[in-house]
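Summary for the funding panel

The consortium committed to producing paired sequence-structure records for every protein in the target list. Below we show the first two records in order, beginning with the earlier of the two.
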Amino acid sequence: MWRNTGNAFPDDELAKKSLARYFAIVQDKKMAKFLIAKKVAAEFDSDDSLEALSERF
């Protein structure tokens, strides 16, 4: 399986600047935000409506 190592555009400063977080994630320097969010505990009632949940958090 091919995996981009973040060095596909080593001389493209615009790509490095605008996609800095992406490159850091690919190079295992940072963790993806969805993985961080997955680990954060949140107490809620699954029977609550979406409106009630959005007001609560």
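The next record, for a separate protein in the list, is shown here:
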Amino acid sequence: MRIGSLDGSRRSPRVGALTVGFLVTLVLALMGLAQEQPTVPHAGAPSAAPLPAGQVPHEGNGVVPPAPGPGEVPPPEPKAAEPGPFAVEQGGQGLQGGWAVDERGNIAFLHSLSSQYPLMRQAGAGWVRINFRLGACFPDWTSVGCNGKTALQVYDEVVTGAVRADLQVLGLLSNESWHGAQPWTANNAERTGGSGDNAYLRDFAQHAAGVLAAHFRGRIREWEVWNEPNCCGSFMYPSNFAWLLTHSYAAIKAADPAALVISGGLISAYPEEPLFSPCASALPSGATYLCATYDMGMTNAGWVPGAFPLDHVGQHLYLDASGATSGAEVRAYVEDMRNAYLSYEGADTGKQTYITELGWTTARVTPAVQAANLQTAYTTLRQMSFVARTFWFSIQDIPEADLAFGLVDAAGAPKPGFLAYQTYATAARTLAP
């Protein structure tokens, strides 16, 4: 099967040759990996600086590819995914891709998520993280948009495509899931002395989280509420985040009692404001922000020990962004976050950590280093029983959004990381380093 960008209109001659040349490409890439031995930092080495705020690696924080030109006809809808000749058995780990829906309400466009399902299936992923964004086409989830359909109808097609590819869905409810008029940071306790609650948070829960959980009941059982609340364009104060979880948890559980709610992934290796320090943390793992959320929740949002409004905790790992990482570094950041929520939930909690983003961009490391870091990270995380699953960001490079985190390039040619993902992300939990 052809591997690449299946948009139907912009096929590179390179892509057509992949069916024959796929294994050769991987072998050559892996030879480069074997020859290139990156220096692994010592366990206590500080992480490299994260990406600049304007280049946070996902559309949920403002990375927007350009809209199609006037009069451009969208390509036909991608075909359902089929396993390729070098596919592996799908496992319990996940991947993320491009936009599910563009600004005109299309699901078929260059580097669309639907076009990437075959790649995800071949990589061996069993899960896909979908950002439920409204975009410019839809005012909300139930009103007819610019394409004559509702957003729910369009995302029915997106989710159906994932199911056909044997991918389970983690639904991301991001700042793009509800437009809203009022800033989500309004009435925060930290700066204004308020409670943290506001109209945007209530509307988000009622008109986005609750509506989506009800509509996709039985098809999506895990929802992540917000994306990187401690960073950049989606930042909100812990008092706001506590209320967002309160409202969204109630709305999701009312719509689907069996659904699981994961708190929005907190980005690691990003400087945290010194304002938030209710518990000690030696690393910028996101733990400090999480502790502040628990404290604000109990102080202002009615949180009660033993009944906190989250089933699991999300974390994003972008470590050593310009070089090689180590197992010790990965373990330190993940355990730091784990210790933060154990201090509130108790050592016997059944709650786990979801690494909902993990990645290295080949704009800052070589493809060989990216593959080596993937191997290190997944091998380490597999040995940590409290890590439920990990989502690599992302399956494919999207140059129009300045994203080079992919396991394949923009044309669909595999990087060494593709085979590394097949080998280490789908391996048994007991895999030795």
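Regarding this second record: Residues 91 and 257 are 26 Å apart (CA to CA). Residues 1-70, 72-85, 429-433 have pLDDT under 50 and may be disordered.
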